[in-house]
């Protein structure tokens, strides 16, 4: 459910570093953690808070359905492309400096979002926001990995997880309250402007409390890979978002046809870099293991159902059912509460049930989509709390697959590749968010002429089907075969 499950293996196995010693004393020891987690909190909160504001943005700016999709998908697109490279930037220039630059970019972009006069200006600012968020996220985990060891690192990572969950749970409600408060006539703009003072404070404190660290031998940046990845993803997302309302002109089909070619060139580029000892954006070694390939596929498909679901649910609740932003946010907390409860149990359940837990989680979330569909069909104008059972199932399902999927896939990686695999998983998460918004938006807005109940129902069918596919793919996440026992009949001398 969170948008920043980024690179936990990276924090667990930090690269060789040269780090300034943190100040002594218990308070000083934990002060840097509080500062960097503030940056994490802002990014995750921003990911969730925007959904409850989409109907208000549509009314105020006259945004088209495609423009609303770009407000969500654009953030994920730049986040995805820059995520892995941002970790290497931190290794090269210093993680503390990279964190501060990322927060500064995020704060400036948030101000631009809050002041945007047109949908195009808002989308452009959201793209920049995604870039700032990508620079912050991996470097937070790297800073934690450098500053803390042993039991302290466990406590720090636990705090990181709590912050992720809390921001996700509060996002919709905080957004609804800010919009309804209408501070100085700001309406939806307050959800972005609130980032400015909080981010500015984090920026000042970070320069004073977060020690600097760098890698001894930082990898070179793969700008060619970044360009090719951006072009490939845009070649898919752009026509899917814009094609329907433009009547599918010829350029949309040309763009979709070019996407496989761009990814093929990207794959060849990555192979050449790896062969010559360079650090590619996505290392081919990650894809050499079929279990890792399957894990990335499951990650991609599952996350195609995340941002897209929040998008259509927010529009359905406010535009379709007439809920206020606050009431809409409260409905979201049903899902968030179930997610938090199950995600706390997920680590222990993963040790007992392995990949089966991911399968159950995906199918539980799919069952939730179908339960919501039945609630809409049976009582589309009835009490809003008829949606509660479906939302509980979706939240529970997310709690059962998100963290266990990351843990399971990382268990397949060799220790020296843990950071690369973790970063690739995070990239697939953001790619899935962007693609999911494009695909589900195509279904939802394409059937909106039949009414919000029908459009939401069709979207839920598509989301449930995607989760069923993901559940089927989890069967490929097989543990490695055990070595054959020695033959007692054979003896050696």
Structural notes for this entry:
With 493 residues, the chain is mostly helical. The chain folds into 3 domains: 7-13 and 25-211, Growth Hormone, Chain: A; 223-280; 285-477, Growth Hormone, Chain: A, CATH 1.20.1250. The chain is built from 18 helices and 2 strands. A two-stranded antiparallel ribbon has the order 1-2. α4 runs antiparallel to α8 and α13 (307-320) runs parallel beside α17 (418-446). The termini are far apart.
Task: Provide keyphrases for this structure.
two-stranded antiparallel ribbon; Growth Hormone, Chain: A; mainly alpha; disordered N terminus
Number of strands: 2
Number of domain modules: 3
Ranges where pLDDT stays below 50 over 5 or more residues in a row are 3-16, 20-24
Q: What is the CA-CA span between the terminal residues?
A: 59 Å
What is the alpha-carbon Rg in Å? 22 Å
* Named CATH topology of the largest domain: Growth Hormone, Chain: A
- What is the CATH homology-level superfamily of the largest domain? MFS general substrate transporter like domains
Q: How do the SSEs run, as a string of H and E?
A: HEHHHHHHHEHHHHHHHHHH
Class of secondary structure makeup? mainly alpha
- Which geometry do the CA atoms define? globular
Strand count, sense and closure of the main sheet? 2 strands, antiparallel
* CATH C-level name of the largest domain: Mainly Alpha
Spatially, the strands of the biggest sheet line up as 1-2
CATH architecture descriptor text of the largest domain: Up-down Bundle
